[in-house]
Amino acid sequence: MDSSQGAVPPQPQATTPARPPFARGWRLVAAVAALVSAAVHVVLYLDGYDTIAVVGPLFLLNAVAGVVLAVLLVLWRHWLPLVGGIGFGGLTLLAFVLSTTVGFYGVNESFAGVNEIVAAVSEVVVVVASAVALLREYVR
To answer: Considering Cα of 118, then 69, then 31, then 83, what sign does the dihedral take?
Structure first.
């Protein structure tokens, strides 16, 4: 008698879609850059921007958003914080560019000074690191 007779044929195993790789390093870089941007905005807020009608509260909101985003980038393995990092960095950088060119709610800044350069660089890093992590995790 053939040993294969009467044997139960192997059942196909249920496959779950492979989870995308986790770009932990890029997320950490984006989170640190968001924290740097948040810290600069707190420093500037306390250094006199708190008295500016619209921009002062926006600086404080930016600082809180940077901290929340940093936590989400590290703890929540989802694409949404990565898109948030791109938006956070891009929009913050856009507001800064507007303030150095045409003005932003009555504020005309110059692209000079340590705080301005550190914030601008950190916001570029947030955008780039978030985009790279998004591509590594979700684009095949």
So the answer is: negative
